[in-house]
Predict the structure.
Amino acid sequence: MTTARRLVLLGGGHAHLAVLADMARSPWTGWDITLVSPLPHLMYSGMVPGLIAGHYRPEDCRIALAPLARAAGVRWRQARCTGIDAGRREVRLVDTPDTPDSAGATAQDVLGYELLSIDTGGVMDADLLEARMPGASRHALAVRPIEGLVDGWARAVQRLQQHHPHGASVAVIGSGAAGIELVFAARQGLAQAGLAGVRLSLLTGGGPVAAGYPAGVRRRLQRQLRQQRITVLPVPCTGVDDGAVHMGTAGSLVCQLALLATGSGAPAWLQGSGLALGPQGHVATNRFLQSTSHPDVLAAGDVADRADHRYPRSGVHAVRAGPPLAMNLRRAATGQALQAYWPPQVTLNLLSCGTGHAVASWGPLSAAGAWVWRWKDRIDRAFVARHHRPQQPS
Ligand SMILES: Cc1cc2nc3c(=O)[nH]c(=O)nc-3n(C[C@H](O)[C@H](O)[C@H](O)COP(=O)(O)OP(=O)(O)OC[C@H]3O[C@@H](n4cnc5c(N)ncnc54)[C@H](O)[C@@H]3O)c2cc1C
């Protein structure tokens, strides 16, 4: 009697969507495959600023994972990974209820594998945040986990409506792509919620807004920030408490809501996994998207770190890595040589400045306007629609 070999797909992230689609097109035989993810859906981050702005509903931005798994012949397990033992080829799981955090986790388990693929995204580690900005993990609303942002935003808006209907002060900490899109989205979402005279501030950490972008993009964004009366504070946040954001020697800013968009890092559970890790604790991978220490482990998206090739972590890169990841998993499973993947040097970046205006960039080139926003809206909606499968009839 032969027993099926086991593949675990850890995380229902952007790259694993392509893996599931590939398996649906051409099902694997002789493998028992499990997709592990703590929530029944992937929240498509590209549309989350539009959700905050009041343009999309939560269901417009969600990609249901169970129907995709079913179409691919893959078992879906609603659980969170809490550790990997790469030497023993095991992942530790905690079953999760249908909530953004694992506070109500129910059962612990160990899942063995012959092949493992990791696409669990980045995290904002509460301990690290506290060390850098005391109070931030308790008093600010973090962008990750992204489902927590969506739920927390709805609660925060209600709180402002009840207690600060006029002239609330809102601060966004972090002026990378997510922070910029969020501050514009907040301007619009709060106005739609009937909140009058909201003062919005964007804390850059010290450098310019959108530091990683070309000068043309920065100029376009600064114009929008001025037009939408968003105050840019080129200072670091050194702490947050109930009612204020602290900015070191620059003093404190009274604020009723602080949003934290300071970038994400690697999950702490990778420490002690035995996997080779990059300088910031991500899974170190080679040109085959394969762990540099364990050939039976592949990884893509924000959780991975290419040892041989630097590129920014983004949803665009996670999506692009999906097809080569699918191909190399299949090749690894069938004993074929893996194929190298080179991420594109230049990608299209689209930043929305609230509904109706967006800035596009492609290398040094940039453009802006209502048409860019409509273009982004079409691309984003099409991405979610492409992954929509009907739920199983009950
Ligand atoms: C507000 C905001 C807007 C953004 N907009 C854009 C944009 O317009 N364009 C762009 O390119 N990038 C954007 N990004 C960045 C983008 O979200 C990430 O780069 C992208 O999500 C990375 O994809 P991923 O597949 O690595 O991980 P994710 O998309 O984060 O997916 C990870 C998956 O793994 C699951 N998971 C998490 N932890 C565990 C665990 N312990 N065990 C099992 N499963 C787990 C999650 O539930 C999720 O299903 C934005 C980010 C934010 C916060």
User: Anything to note?
Assistant: Residues 99-105 have pLDDT under 50 and may be disordered. Residues 10-15, 36-39, 42, 45-46, 48-49, 80-81, 119-121, 143, 146, 177-178, 181-182, 301-303, 313-316, 318 surround flavin-adenine dinucleotide (CB under 6 Å). The domain at 5-123+264-345 is CATH 3.50.50.60 (FAD/NAD(P)-binding domain). The first strand starts at residue 5 and ends at 10.
